[in-house]
Amino acid sequence: MDFLRPARPVPLSLVAGQGHYEAVVEAVLAARRSVWIATANLKELMVRDARLVPGRRRTAKGSYRSVLERFAELVRAGVEIRILHAGEPSRAFREELARQPELSRERGFELRRCPRVHLKVVLVDAERVYLGSANWTGAGLGAKGEGRRNFELGLVSSDELLVDEATALVEHVWRGAACKGCKLKDLCPAPLDGSGVRPAAAPATPKPAAPQRARARASRRRSGPGAS
After folding, report:
1. pTM, whole model, 2 decimals?
2. Residue 23 — pLDDT band, cuts 50, 70, 90?
3. Domain count, the chain
């Protein structure tokens, strides 16, 4: 999908720094029907914990929890969540995902991976769109303190045509429509035009220690390519 649309007046809000949390993350947490995210990097992201827990005072310090916990709550409420990403999710993301069994393809939460994804888009309820530099990471969108966040800049809009255009592009990649002519299939873990559609993955198996890898290489050399 290559295009250059004609210029037209569009209502936009410019977002920078902490404004990303307020304009993007809080909108996601208030979703009623759907959340679609496209991001190059996918990492754990902490959000403010607004719960009132009996017997515990709520304080500004330490009152955070994983966004994946909140995603589980949204899925229970019937919100569909899709995340289209390029790189492998961070270890912290995968470990937290494994602790949230409700986040599965069958229940309305799905991850799909395409190495060519570099766009950063967040669509909420098919009514609101964020377009900008921020990946779905704590440093990009999370509630990190002053002096620790990335320098990010983006735009938020509820313009119907802009939302529709962004939705169509994300959907085009999501359903594998770009896979047929892709020149990077050799780098792709699972093309999305069929076999690449996967439920949310469990944490990856750790790599063996260096001595084990050396022994495995030595064993392969002794066996040779024709060994059975």
Report:
1. 0.81
2. very high
3. 1
Q: DSSP strand E in the chain: where?
A: 13-16, 34-39, 46-48, 64-66, 80-85, 109-113, 121-124, 128-132, 153-157
- The token pair at 123 is 């669509």
Q: Greater confidence, 61 or 104?
A: 104
Contact 126, 34 (CB under 8 A): yes
Residue found under tokens 């699972």: 190
124 located within any domain: yes
Strand order from edge to edge, sheet including 109-113: 13-16, 153-157, 128-132, 121-124, 34-39, 80-85, 109-113
In a domain, 5, yes or no: no
83-114 per-position pLDDT tens digit: 999 999 999 999 999 999 999 888 899 999 99
Where residue 36 sits, what CATH number does that domain have? 3.30.870.10
60 contact partners, CB below 8 Å, separation of at least 6: none
Which residues form the domain of 50?
Answer: 13-223
Contact 154, 20 (CB under 8 A): yes
